[in-house]
Specification:
By secondary structure, the protein is an alpha+beta fold. The protein is 36% helix and 23% strand. It contains four helices and ten strands; from the N terminus they run αααββββββββββα. The longest helix is centred in the first third of the chain and has 34 residues. The N and C termini lie far apart (65 Å). The relative contact order is 0.15.
């Protein structure tokens, strides 16, 4: 391609870099994934696209074989039916071909699975506790050695209390604020029944089980507000347990953390 083509693309990116609207929540008639904001979600989307290649190839091949079989071996074209019952070569082919395809799928699948499960030297730990029907959050790290933890509950904002532009069934009164470009460990548990803490844009879905601690690593690559919901049926108000995660730069996070620490100390 010509140099002019690349210059035009670069010029377009520069013009639109501050006007990009990411899909960080479910949209009406949405078919594909939400826009990724973490390496885990990027890996999930890339694996999905790779699998779709195999899926389309296999579907087209099988459709072609079926069509050929119906046309070439119909009663009109074959008055005397064939007596062939098996063929060594074709049986070897249709045994080895799926095996090779499964190996090609399994290698990146297991690599992604183990990378998602890896916790890399976290700088921040967030504890998530599921309740019927709200979430509690605890920031256990004491950055200033003040022996004061930051903890709060997060409830869904009722529809009649929503402000203009807020999202129905997704807005909460207390958002989680986390720093971007930081290794974060999230510990998930429950106080009553089984819940599931899930945020699609971050590629996280971790079960909250009573009496058990599950953990998952998180690395947010860009600022934004990412929405999720409880993904395990947990009772009559299961649909009213939204999750809102706000990714900010490290300076903004510490300002929020200090302010939240003061509020928590006054409450307790």
């Amino acid at each position: 391609m010509s140099t002019t083509y690349y210059i035009m693309i670069l010029f377009f990116i520069i013009l639109t870099k501050n006007n990009i609207n990411f899909c960080e929540r479910a949209e009406p008639w949405q078919i594909l994934f939400q826009d990724s904001a973490s390496p885990s979600m990027e890996g999930i989307i890339n694996l999905h696209h790779d699998l779709m290649f195999f899926l389309i190839f296999i579907a087209c091949f099988v459709l072609w074989i079926l069509t050929r079989a119906v046309v070439m071996f119909s009663a009109n074209n074959n008055k005397i039916p064939s007596s062939v019952t098996h063929g060594t070569f074709i049986e070897i082919v249709w045994t080895l071909a799926p095996t090779i395809i499964l190996l090609l799928v399994a290698i990146p699948s297991f690599a992604l699975l183990y990378s998602i499960d890896e916790i890399i030297d976290p700088s921040l730990t967030l504890k998530v506790i599921g309740h019927q029907w709200y979430w509690s959050y605890e920031y256990s790290d004491d950055f200033l050695l003040t022996d004061k933890n930051v903890s709060f509950d997060s409830y869904m904002i009722l529809e009649e209390d929503l402000e203009l532009g807020q999202l129905r069934l997704l807005e909460v009164d207390n958002k989680i604020v986390l720093p971007i470009n930081t290794q974060i460990r999230i510990i998930v548990t429950s106080a009553d029944v089984i819940h599931s803490w899930a945020v699609p844009s971050l590629g996280i879905k971790c079960d909250a089980i009573p009496g058990r601690l599950n953990q998952v690593g998180l690395y947010i690559k860009r600022p934004g507000t990412f929405y999720g919901q409880c993904s395990e049926i947990c009772g009559v108000n299961h649909a009213f347990m939204p999750i809102a995660v706000e990714g900010v730069n490290i300076e903004t996070f510490f300002k929020w953390w200090l302010n939240k620490q003061e509020i928590s100390s006054k409450e307790y």
